[in-house]
Specification:
Length: about 350
């Protein structure tokens, strides 16, 4: 007699398999996106490496106030204007001489250098670094201000002698403006030198000098046209010196960006939209304000969390704490342009010029 408890065997046909709908939404362990309760995704956390490309900020849409040309231009302009405001009440036009006449240009150079020295540290929200660099920039700027003013005076006299031989007898002639612009390039050299020295970077110094020469030269050439337009000494000095600081800072930022060869772009985190150009052979990254890339507001980041080493044409990432590159935990890794680096809540795109 057959067992009544036996059940008929389960049969699956090809027709049944064809009706199965397999979900394929691209999410999984490799997607790098964690799904929080309620269906919301979370990105940039050390526990969920390999953030989706959609979670990070597009490098082409950087905030303008995080661009070097903007904050350096604003810093140079503010320093130069402050120097003019301090000296102008004690400045004498025409015959006569007061202390304002003696110190106005050296002070413009000193405070412009101070602004350029602290600008990036302020943007990075590192007050300790800003204070250290600011004091050094102010000291070097004060010394360099008088020195470079003396050198610029000599160059200007030679320039005037040359344009006089060409028959130029008035400051209304564009040749006179060019002579002043060439002399004022010296002030741009001062700004670039001190900008690189406070960060102890030879490459940053070279870029700064080149940008400073371009910006200060342009500022010098518009000084006399401004005086002609305003027909007064004080307004022309105010606008002229302010433009000197502005043009110097803007040109330095543009030159830096144009000539950079390797950099990291902050794609997620409090500094999203900021780029860090890799100037030094070894760039320190961590929660200490002494690091070249200071990462704040994240307790999971160590004071010296990682470093980026430039070794010839290659770039290496060395990790002391938890670091992910393209979703994989690393200790030492050779970086390729386009790699996504994650440290705590921060994400960085590593970039090389000419490579995606």
């Amino acid at each position: 007699m057959a067992n009544t408890d036996d059940k008929p065997p389960l049969k699956i046909t090809l027709e049944d398999l064809a009706k199965v709908n397999v979900r394929n939404d691209g999410q999984g362990a490799a997607s790098g996106a964690a799904v929080a309760p309620g269906g919301a995704r979370q990105y940039g956390n050390i526990a969920t490496p390999g953030a989706d490309a959609a979670a990070v900020k597009d490098e082409g849409k950087s905030k303008f106030y995080l661009q070097g040309w903007f904050y350096l231009g604003l810093a140079g302009m503010s320093g130069a204007f402050l120097a003019w405001a301090i000296c102008e009440p004690r400045f004498v036009d025409g015959e006569g001489h007061r202390w304002g006449n003696t110190v106005i240009i050296p002070l413009v150079v000193a405070l412009m250098c101070f602004g350029l020295g602290v600008a990036e540290s302020i943007v990075e929200r590192s007050p300790r670094k800003a204070a250290t660099r600011g004091l050094l920039a102010l000291l070097l700027g004060a010394i360099g201000g008088f020195l470079f003013n003396f050198v610029a005076g000599i160059i200007f006299m030679f320039g005037l002698a040359i344009v006089s031989e060409l028959g130029v007898q008035t400051y209304r002639n564009p040749a006179f403006w060019i002579a002043r612009g060439v002399a004022w390039m010296v002030f741009g050299v001062a700004g670039g030198l001190i900008y690189g020295l406070v960060d102890m970077s030879a490459k940053k110094l070279r870029y700064g000098v080149l940008g400073g020469v371009i910006g200060a030269g342009l500022g010098g050439m518009v000084f006399d046209p401004i005086a002609m337009a305003t027909n007064a000494g004080a307004p022309s000095r105010a606008v002229g010196f302010t433009l000197l600081g502005l043009a110097t800072g803007v040109a330095m930022g543009i030159v830096e960006s144009a000539l950079k060869d390797r950099w990291v772009y902050v794609a997620a985190g409090p500094l999203a939209g900021k780029q860090f150009i890799l100037y030094k052979p070894l760039t320190a990254i961590g929660s200490s304000q002494q690091c070249d890339i200071y990462l704040f507001k994240d307790n999971s980041i160590q004071p010296q969390h990682a470093s980026i080493e430039l070794r010839g044409a290659q770039t290496f990432l060395h990790a002391a704490g938890q670091v992910y590159v393209s979703g994989q935990p690393v200790r030492t890794r050779a970086l390729q342009s386009g790699d996504l680096i994650q440290i705590g809540r921060y994400s960085f795109h590593y970039r090389e010029r000419g490579r995606n």
